[in-house]
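Re: the multi-chain job from yesterday

Posting the exact lines I submitted so nobody has to dig through the queue logs.
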Amino acid sequence: MATEDSGPGDPRLARLSLNTATTKNWTLAEAVDGAVRAGIPALGVWRDRVAEVGVRRAAAMIADAGLRVSSLCRGGFLTAAGAGGVDAALQDNRAAIREAAVLGARELVMVVGGLPDGDHDLAAARRRVAERIAELAPIAADHGVRLALEALHPMYCADRAVLSTLGQALDLAAPHPADTVGVVVDTFHVWWDPELERGIGRAGREGRIASYQVCDWMLPIAQDALLSRGMMGDGHIDFGAVGGWVRDAGYAGDVEVEIFNADIWAADGHAVLATLTRRYLEHVLPPLDRIAP
Amino acid sequence: MATEDSGPGDPRLARLSLNTATTKNWTLAEAVDGAVRAGIPALGVWRDRVAEVGVRRAAAMIADAGLRVSSLCRGGFLTAAGAGGVDAALQDNRAAIREAAVLGARELVMVVGGLPDGDHDLAAARRRVAERIAELAPIAADHGVRLALEALHPMYCADRAVLSTLGQALDLAAPHPADTVGVVVDTFHVWWDPELERGIGRAGREGRIASYQVCDWMLPIAQDALLSRGMMGDGHIDFGAVGGWVRDAGYAGDVEVEIFNADIWAADGHAVLATLTRRYLEHVLPPLDRIAP
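And the result, structure tokens for all chains:
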């Protein structure tokens, strides 16, 4: 259901992508249909939605509907210390790279993983991530896929991602070609960072911005902290400032809306997309579109 | 109640300080008594505990018990945009500086405040903090008090402190003399920071480490995120790594245990101090004491 302000064919939505996590209760077919009806031309696809129908069928469904895939979510979880955990992680990431290639997803979002159970050695976990990115990068390159390193908010450092800032993501990417290892700029995760303007500028100069993901920072933090994300405009993030930096960095790619939020998941998906496109036009697009001063 | 391992006069506790927030349900008199019985020679005092009895009587109670004051908590909340809010904040901070001087507290911990209601301009809020620190610094200097800027975990950026990293705190302190504006290293707030080793080293070289505060990072994040702190050893923080950096930075001052945690508040205060001293000796003191390599 498109809003009264936008709909299929609206050129203002040309860069907008629906991440399937935002409409978690929709099947892939429903997400494809919802995006088409709302005029959203791209999907950020989670692997569980792909697994529902198989990767070749998923690729066909998305392409047949005229949509593109802005990213595959996600690879990563590279911090295991034991050999078994390492092998399993690398095998899973190789599978994710192959899936991304079949889907035509240039960007494979990487959530690198937290501290292993009972392990306090954060520096060592970060070193392991660097080593495993080095193992995966040539495989990604062979498949024409880029590993898009996602810094997660520091509140997830222990359990989800020891990669905590955009600057750290760029340092981790630095040994690799920019078309093989990039970085995600996700407003929810990085909005607070006093080094953000500098980091986005650096990411742009290095050609490493693989994805601009948007959602808002809500308070109070949800009881399940993973579900604390909100619709753009409902929280505290200055999309004008961050979007302006992303624009000035020369990023002209897709803008993915990825919201983990129990209330949004419980709502009607078409209504969510109507709000989402309206808020995108109101808060997210204007700074991206504005001519740099 | 001392542990079997430590107690009054134990030289291993010489740097340990009980922050009164850890035993929130104790009056100042009870905290003084508890610290003395546990062999803890210093208190980090919150202003609400001081207000209970008045600042001169509080100073006398603490001194008469042979304790010292490692810090006064807290000043700050400097981000208001309107004139009324600014004046109120500056007045309150001047009062806090005077209280610190009377208590003999060299360090006044500053929690700078979050975004004003409905305000999204993070950069402007951060500039206001810098301007108000500049107004307060000479007053603090006149009183022999140091403003100890505390970076809070980025999950509090919107509502508690737009000061989010140690590096940012050092940049904010930089225009001022090191004996007038310092920084707090609080493990809970900074443990995740990939720039932490560098930041602590810089803080040491600049002579700005005003306080080393310890508690642990617990998961899941508590429903009231402020109460998510835990007893050292119960969570994910590598006190060996952080303590080693603090030692190598030349910090030889007090080590304050400040834990906001509903379970700890509900427990018997003397039992909490017994656990606290034991965990301090087990996790926190060894890296601080070790001879640098």
